[in-house]
Amino acid sequence: MSQRSIKPLPLTQERFAPYGDVIETGHSEAGSMNEARFERFDDLCKLDVGDGRIAISIAQSRSPTSLPYLVDMVERHPLGSQAFVPLTQCKLIVLVAPAAESVDENALVAFETNGRQGINYHRGTWHMPLLAFETAQRYLIIDRAAGAPNCDIHRLDEPILLLS
């Protein structure tokens, strides 16, 4: 049997809607703040923390990943959403499958950001762990804290080769 591979599609609101939200300013009308010295883009994603509380964290990569990359597991957060926003312009590739009790490995699809987009996974969306393509890439993470553990892991029956 040959190795299954997936090439990422460009990330758009429409394509990503079944899995979560694309966090970017291009689809939202700006308001103003601070005596109109700033444009403000509100409500860019739908955070869901259930009965937990919002946690804001920063992740910084220790080592870069290169493509092709072999993905052997996915995870989901059944109790709340999880958002990643790059703190500097950088490519982000995500591999996702619809929210469900178990992952449909044949439904996995990959998306690549334009370097300025963030993503918010809906509660229960299956996804691969975060990748960085440069050392010291930084992401703002907004997700659920408190209470019960919020991460289920699924080892893929057959690893998937993620292409560039």
Give the helix level as a range of percent. under 10%
CATH superfamily: Ureidoglycolate hydrolase
CATH class: Mainly Beta
What is the alpha-carbon Rg in Å?
16 Å
Order of helical and strand elements = EEHEEEEEEEEEEEE
Q: What's the number of helices?
A: 1
Distance between the termini: 22 Å
Q: What average pLDDT do the residues reach?
A: 94
Strand arrangement within the widest β-sheet reads 3-11-8-13-6
When the domains are counted, the total is: 1
Low-confidence stretches: none
Strand content: 35-45%
Q: What summary fits the major beta sheet?
A: 5 strands, antiparallel
List the defining traits of the structure above.
Jelly Rolls; 164 residues; mainly beta; 2% helix; four-stranded mixed β-sheet; globular; five-stranded antiparallel β-sheet
Description:
This protein has one domain: Jelly Rolls. Helix content is 2%, strand content 43%. The mean pLDDT is 94. With 164 residues, it is mostly beta strands. It contains one helix and 14 strands, in the order ββαββββββββββββ. The strands form four sheets. The chain has a five-stranded antiparallel β-sheet, with no helix packed on it.
